[in-house]
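Appendix B, record 7
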Amino acid sequence: MSFQEPPSSFVEDIPDSNPSPDDIDNLLNTELCSLSLNERGQVFDDIHGVSDVIEETPELVSEGLQRVDEELKLINDKYAYDFAYALDPKYVKNRVFLLRFLRATMFDAHSAASRIVQHFEIKMELFGKEKLSQDITQDDLDPEDLTMLYAGYYQNIGVRDRAGRGVDLWLTGLKPKLGLDPVTETKHRLRRMFYAQMVISMDEEIQKKGQVIIVWAVDMPQGSNKNRSAVWATVKMLSCLPIRLNAVHICYDSVLLKALITLGSYAADAFTRVRMRSHYGSYSECVHELKTFGIPIYALPFDENGNVSTENHKAFWGKRRQLERSCSGLGKVLSPGPFDVLLGRGRLCQEHVGNVRYRQMVVKHKQQYDNSSTVDKTAISFMIVNMVKDSSGRFLKDNGNGWVEVDDKRARDKVSHSFRTLRYTNNAASKP
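Structure tokens (predicted):
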């Protein structure tokens, strides 16, 4: 097989000047006017976290993958893809791998094929040809990449929004200072981002429901994150990965950042651009705005004064590295969904929306449980377990390496314990 030369990277492909706010407004107006009424409604639902999910059938998946294969054959200029295929056809044609891109494009086979080709191109530019036919792990990252990964300025908050979508928080003020030139620094940021997003995209629920990004630029240190090439390339690379951004919320408190915001909006694809929303204000004002869009603000890594914690973030990636080295991999539950019940203590478990719904179920059936025999109490506990599962929920426990689903017996024990705890709490409250 002969290969054509690869295209030049978009890492250095940036406009000489920022587009004006009027340019962005005109572009958005054109794109919104091209949408049907239903498509505009879908944009609104996506942004507010109330959108529906495509109902997948075996036929839809099979036909979609077949169309992707046909579309890939029609693309002539795909040097990196062809090279990866020559290295390991099974990796490139892996059904699970291709389905991630198909879901990211809502089963648009043409867009999925184009994204797959771009994915291999940027992967080759960032990691080299020898890595094209294998998943990137932390051991493939440079020290500068790892510094950026563990710094915590890109965090997955570990909890879904009200639509069950993954939520990423980009903390621009936490960007580590590496003392590198802008182009080199940008490439390290992209390598980190490529790795992290490919890990997050392994989550099947995120593949189906999409992802939300919060760009947090409130109380930023003076002069931080003014790397235009980094903003441009970061947004551009999103269209090369198997992720679908259903909403992007940009929180900022300085008008000096408007130029970078317009540049990022201009770099985005049309699907993402119409789903971007900017929120100008203080810490408390921006948090309040996010809450109205279904963001679980209790899970954001801020204290009451707006200070950022990176403890959970570092622990997550540390566990991930151990699992990569043991070749055991992470389970599919990278972050709990809105109907999942979390076993454990602490604010995260107590305030998780799935736990709140679960406690309401227990309260509703308390009297029936208290008045039942031992055998009937067991049946009621199993009934609660089934109610959670019927709503697409799971009983999850953090085993030290991530969230895993427990068996029905462990879930039933959790329910029985919740009934006993509720009875003890009510009795204690009734005592004078």
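Remarks on this record: Residues 120 and 167 are 25 Å apart (CA to CA). Residues 1-8, 328-332 have pLDDT under 50 and may be disordered.
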